[in-house]
Write a structure and sequence with these properties.
Blueprint (H helix, E strand, L loop, with lengths): L6 H10 L64 E6 L13 E7 L4 E6 L5 E7 L2 E6 L5 E6 L4 E4 L4 E6 L5 E7 L7 E2 H6 L7 H8 L3 H11 L4
Antiparallel strand pairs: 1-2, 2-9, 3-8, 3-10, 4-7, 4-9, 5-6, 5-8
Helix pairs in contact: 3-4
C-alpha cells in the first residue's frame, strides 16, 4: 500500500516539476462594524495602515460627522485654489473604511497644480463653475476636457493630473477617493521643495535648464532666511 507523501514534500515535488500553482489572495473582511481612529492612544511615530481603534463604549456619532466641506476654502494664494480634505486624519470614523472626500475651491483662473495621489483613484463632481481638467498616462498621453456644473471626471490612481478654473467666477468641486488617506504629491513641490534638496545638477539635467534657474525655482519653495 502506497504511503501518502507529507504535504510539504508534495509541494516541493510540484515546484520542482514546474507545475503551475494558483494562489488566491485578497484583503480580509472587517471583523468589526467600525474602527474609529483613536488619535490619543498612539505610543510612538510608528503606524501601520491606519490608526488604533477607539474603544467601542467611547465611540459617538460625532466621530462620523464633519462640517469641513461646508464652507469654501481660502483661495488667496499663488495657485488660486484651496483643497479642504476630509480624510481619516480629520474624520476618525473613516478609519479602515477605504474612502474619503475633499473640497477644492478655485479663484477665477485658479489652478490645482499637477499632482498625484499614490494611494487612490479620484473622481470629482463639479459644484459650480467651469474647469479644464486632465491626467497624463505613463505613455505621456494627455486625457483632458472641460467640465461644468453637475459633471464628473475620473483620475486613475497614481497618475499626474490637474484642474484649472476656466472662468472669471469662482468654481468648486467635490473629490471622492477610494482611500481613507490618499496622499498627495505636488509635482513642483516634490522636485523643487524636497528636504534635503534634490541635487541641483540632477534637476538641471532632467529639465535641460541652467543650474541657476533651478536654484531660483527652489528659492520660491524655500526662500532665503
Amino acid at each position: 500500500m502506497a504511503h501518502k507523501l507529507p504535504a510539504i514534500i508534495l509541494l516541493a515535488v510540484l515546484l520542482a516539476l514546474g507545475a503551475p500553482l494558483v494562489v488566491v489572495a485578497g484583503d480580509p473582511d472587517m471583523l468589526q462594524d467600525v474602527c474609529v481612529a483613536d488619535y490619543h492612544s498612539l505610543k510612538g511615530p510608528l503606524r501601520l495602515n491606519g490608526f488604533p481603534c477607539k474603544r467601542h463604549e467611547n465611540v459617538t456619532a460625532n466621530d462620523f460627522f464633519s462640517g469641513l466641506l461646508a464652507k469654501p476654502g481660502n483661495t488667496g494664494n499663488a495657485a488660486g485654489s484651496a483643497v479642504t480634505a476630509a480624510t481619516v486624519e480629520r474624520l476618525p470614523g473613516l478609519n479602515t473604511l477605504g474612502v474619503s472626500l475633499a473640497r477644492i475651491d478655485f479663484a477665477p483662473w485658479g489652478v490645482n497644480p499637477p499632482h498625484t495621489h499614490p494611494r487612490a483613484t479620484e473622481i470629482i463632481f463639479v459644484l459650480h463653475g467651469s474647469l479644464r481638467v486632465g491626467f497624463i498616462t505613463t505613455a505621456n498621453s494627455l486625457f483632458a476636457r472641460t467640465l461644468r456644473r453637475g459633471e464628473v471626471f475620473v483620475f486613475p490612481r497614481g497618475l499626474v493630473h490637474f484642474q484649472k478654473n476656466n472662468g472669471r467666477a469662482p468654481a468648486a468641486v467635490v473629490s471622492a477617493f477610494n482611500s481613507q488617506l490618499p496622499g498627495t504629491q505636488a509635482v513642483a513641490q516634490t522636485l523643487f521643495g524636497a528636504s534635503p534638496a534634490v541635487p541641483t545638477d540632477v534637476l538641471a539635467r532632467a529639465f535641460q535648464i541652467d543650474a541657476g534657474l533651478v536654484e531660483a525655482i527652489e528659492s520660491k519653495f524655500f526662500p532665503p532666511m
